[in-house]
Design goal:
By secondary structure, this protein is mostly helical. Helices cover 71% and strands 0% of the residues. The chain is built from five helices and no strands. The longest helix has 36 residues. The relative contact order is 0.15.
Length: 182
């Protein structure tokens, strides 16, 4: 089944689905779009200077790599909220509405636990990079706390989005429980 966008309705009998984008997800989506545009411009300029001027800035690979990290980590919350991650539909189709809500809630709790652990470790890595003044062994000698900060922002945004969707799932669980009298 194709992923649903935030404005599309859920299939019959399925009260769940994607939630609307919030401020965090919109900011992450904008940052991803800007990073992709910057990456395209950076690589385009490097291709042009190599082909036409026989010259290279020799930093485009490093900067494009940092921009790729930005896109990968900042898009996590956007993908979660829009329902773009994989699901096992043949299992969910066999469950009742309450069962689907319970399964989504359990899986989101598990994802939140994993994302919170990653966030904690990324913060520790970020603080160590800052404290020890680590720099990339490249021409730019980029302080590594700068690109590693993207890991922290991406994991924090994912945790926030998971909390938002879990709140919606709890509401759906309570509604489903009220309609079934249990």
């Amino acid at each position: 089944m194709a992923p649903r966008g935030p404005k599309e309705s859920a299939p019959p009998g399925d009260p769940g689905g994607a939630v609307a984008e919030g401020v965090v997800e919109r900011a992450c989506k904008l940052a991803c779009a800007l990073a992709l545009a910057a990456m395209l411009a950076l690589i385009g300029v490097d291709v042009f200077t190599r082909a036409v001027l026989n010259f290279s800035y020799e930093v485009s690979d490093e900067l494009a790599g940092y921009l790729l990290v930005a896109v990968a980590f900042l898009s996590l919350s956007v993908c979660h909220v829009s329902g773009s991650f994989h699901r096992v539909d043949f299992v969910q189709e066999r469950l009742s509405a309450r069962g689907r809500v319970a399964l989504r809630l359990a899986l989101e709790a598990l994802m939140l636990f994993a994302a919170a652990l990653l966030l904690w470790q990324y913060v520790r890595l970020e603080l160590a990079s800052w404290r020890f003044g680590e720099k990339a062994p490249t021409y730019l000698e980029t302080p590594l706390w700068l690109p590693r900060l993207l890991l922290v922002f991406g994991a924090a945004a994912l945790c926030w989005s998971l909390l938002r969707t879990m709140t919606g799932e709890v509401r759906r669980w309570r509604r489903a429980r009220g309609t079934h009298g249990a």
